[in-house]
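Incident log entry.

Two folding requests arrived from the same account within the same minute. Monitoring flagged them as a possible duplicate submission, but the sequences differ. Recording both here for audit purposes.

Request one:
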Amino acid sequence: MSKNKYIDEFHNGDEELTIVDLDANDEEVREESETVSDDGVETESEAELDSKDSEDVDGPEKSEDDEDDLLESEEDEEDFDEYDDEEDYDEEPAEEEEYEEDDSNDEASYEDVESDDMSDDEDDTKKSGIGKKILIVLISIVGVVAAIYLAGIAFFFFNFMPGTHINGTDCSYKSTGKVKGMLEDQVDSYVLTLKERNDVTETIQGSDVDLKFVSADSVSELARVMNPLLWPVKIYEFYRFGDTTSHEIHAEVSFDESKLDTAMKSLKCMDKESMIPPKDSYPALDGALYKPHPEEPGTTIDEPAFKKALAEAITGTYDVLDMDAAECYINPKLTVDSQEVKDECEKFNKYVGLTITYHFGDETEVLDGSVTGTWMTFNEDKVPEINQDAIKAWVADFAARHDTAGATRTFTAANGAQAQVTGGTYGWRIDQQAEIDQINAMFNSLESQDREPIYSQTAASHGATDWGNTYIEVSIANQHVWYVQDGQVVFEADVVTGLPTAKRATTKGVWTILEKKQGKVLRGEKLPDGSYEYETPVSYWLRVTYTGIGFHDASWQPWFGGDRYTYAGSHGCINMSYSTVQQLYGMVAVGTPVIIY
């Protein structure tokens, strides 16, 4: 019975296949070795292999894997030899059948391994090829991008970035040469506008001063400063966000200084007759306080400063010269911010800050700096000098507004009718000289005052009816008299007043009882011979005026009231019957107000 085993050995690099055949009779053992390489398949005998092994002793060292394979081969041979020595042949057919099955499995396994190895090699080869292609594409893309980037650097080294504005002109992608040409054109058409005070403008042409273009090296300097290495970023920012950058570049120019002098002197602002001199700030009354009055700049030119500013503006090819900002004018020495002016205001306010608060019953009036400030002038030592005439004028007006003696009053008469009275001596009267003295005393002491005015004459109360609620009222039209006490009529009677002529009419107004006397002789005007126009004795006399008008009994009058006064009137007195005047005499006192209207 024969058995065959195949032992496959695969090695990396050259794949080495060793096949060992054993026959049933152990007649011979052959070893065939096939070496599979990239060049083909070569079959050699065992003897040749041995000879080669012997020749390779001094050659390269075998790997540990090769040695393990060799040991396995030898062990397999020993196993086969032991199998040949066995004498149990009864089970040979079964073993042979089993062996054949194993042999077929081994062959199938070999084919599968060989197929898998070949498939892996092909996959690796395909993957390797795809990777190489991707790598080549990536390298190509990087090369193209790098070439574009370098080209951009080269371009923007001599051209301006997008969004670049120079002197108000869009210079995107323009070369430095074109921009220099643009500046040269600007010089040829150059005009300098002078912005003067009071919204006045004048111009100087470049041709007026023989302006010439020299160079514009600053253009190249600006191009280098813009950093061409960042050109992709600049392009993105411009087209994505609309970013722009503005630059002012002034070309190098030359001009004729003598012609500049001529052009400057021909300007209207240089006309000395039309120049307005500056005025310093000073303390000025504003309301009730002194405040720094704004300085007045004027239009007087500072010629050296103006000429220097003109030269700098033309050299820089500026479009506008703001003469105020360039300090081309002679300015005031003192401004509203000057400490000297502020100190003066503070000192002056010590005087105008003084007040007098006047009381008129429930009403008040305040004299403050808005008035007193107008009375003051300050000498060189900043000491105030008070204008006395101004004080007198103010006090006279003050008295006219508040004096009630002789003023017109409107009131409700005892009979309920509305009446009006003007004149008389009764009422409030301010002592004007005393008030002037009090005002000067306030400035000397620097102390404010809170008081009533100083009066030369007073009344019962303040207000329109300053006679109060106790008074005598005489109505000429009604030929009647009332005595009102504490607001109530306690007496009344008919009367006869003066004949309504220029000399004999009863004087209207508000008066007072000046005198009470019994047994009085009334006399008229004194005649040239020393006698009197008349002499009439009366029992009761109540004087109202110092000119001789008063209340008295008149026994010669047959009756009182009505229109008798129009044809039999008195010389101005108020005639009453004996009984009525006697009663009134006993009720009133000296000083009682008398209203005759």
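Request two (distinct sequence, not a duplicate):
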Amino acid sequence: MNKGDAMTRDNKLLRALVVCLAATALIAGACTDGSDDSGSSAGGDAFLSDDAAEATFETRPSMGQVTVTGTEAGTEITLFDQSGQAVESSETDSEGALIFREVEPGTYRVATTDGDDQVASGDIVVPTEEESLPEQDFYEGQTLEPGYTYIETRDGTQLSASVYLPGPIDEGPYPTVVEYSGYDPAKPGSNLLEDNADKLAELGLDADELCSTLEFLCDAPAQPSSIIAIAMGYAVVSVNVRGTGCSGGAYDYFEPLQVLDGYDVVETVAAQDWVHDNKVGMVGLSYPGISQLFVARSQPPSLAAITPLSVMDDTVRGLLSPGGLFNKGFALTWADEVLTKAEPYGQGWEQALVDEGDTICEQNQKLRGQNVDVTELALSFDHYPKELGDWYNPTLFAKDINVPVFLTGAFQDEQTGGRFGHLWDAFENAPVVRFTLWNGAHADGYAPMNLSEWKAFLDLYVADQLPTMPAVMNLLAPVLMADVFGAELALEPVPYSEYATVEEARAAYEAEKPVRLILESGGDPDQPEPRAEPWSSASISGHRSMWLRCPSTSVRMALSPRPSRPPATNPPPATTSMRRWPRRSPSRVTTPEMPSWLCPATAGTRNPTDLPRCSSHLPWRRT
């Protein structure tokens, strides 16, 4: 049995155990039928008849899943293995759809449970992850043009996407980035100038005339990172994860199949003729920032670099249940909101496309009834479920990320928290890392002190060019900053632009310390300027920056001024060989389980992956 098979088996055992515990808590009896609240079961007495007629419903195998569509609502369907044994049974939803999850690799058939009038599919092969990987011509065979489109994944699912180029397609290739999340990145572009025509008129400006010079604002992406990237001269491909927007499939929070979709998106985009060097980067703050970590763990060969902004270190212990107490504030609200918007036509823009004749979007809405209620899943556990929770812990899989990483965050992040620093030592195989942290809030990833550094990183590791800042960004930045932060702030000068070659600039970049600390960001400008020594003063009013040297053998941090930029004397470490990640791999935690109230005492451990596995004595459930 391979690791993937073992993990699938362990997850099934975990779910069965949860059902047993729930049943024991409700009645003083034994767990005998293996059923759960979803109405699915292990198949009971269902059998596959030799005389079953050919089914008219459709089936689609995926890695770990089998999807059934086209049945009558409420039809009981059973999944049978190659020997004819029932694996699982459940009823189709109101759209006649059903997804069997956690299916081990192998050959199966799907049939109605009624033995008298039974109909059955032909053989269905559920592949291993390695078997599911398409040939390169699968990616090269997809053509993406500017505007709204779809990207096909390895299991045939169509993901909605919007493509934005900084110029005509025949004037490429262009440096390119991908934004990938369950928000609305794929929503067709909107005319921001027209939407703000009245405000522009007050300034004596005509929206239509401005479109000739600010074309990207007349067809602007829905998400901020994508807007900024296109303004900075990058091509952008914005994609909705499966089960959201107009994308096909069903939503489940960062399930393995969603990660593989991200792999397919990166490879499909990189295969386009208009993509510089056939390599792409990834951008995004918060949700689309976290998604970069998950996609990068799958090691797409054409991924050049990632730039996760305002992210968390661990879904469960860092965001969902910090300190062992269920986060009924942001985490619960966010999960519920994403689920609501993943319902049919839940984001609002899907209906307009369907009304215009988009039959793909219309068809994709029919699997929304199979979305996983991740809120209820989280609430079903009183303690940390190691076999499930470790899959969602970036500090455990960051070692599998083998591309340059630019990661930022705020100490006082009111949404994802301030624990992102636990990731710093976890990127063991990333050839280049740059971390920035500051006093501030969640949205500060878009602050001027960060955008110039962000642009320099993308230029060096995605565009393969000397860092520059387009004049239009310097023009628009004060307006953008005023809208986001309430103050007209200019961008800082782009660093590393003074070198003669990109090789020299990269060498200087990699010679610097990897951690940048910005203190007093957002401070009161009317207060006296704090003493600058022993570190250098900031380049803009209101914050002070310094550089950290973070020894791996101690939690103490030595502060030093930002150093000069001599050429690097040593090349960056070689990347690890391409290797695929095990599905829901076990963590490296070997210490015994400890109660959650002892967790703070472990804050000084050298490696966040060595923290004791903390469990809560208090329930996470909502009250």
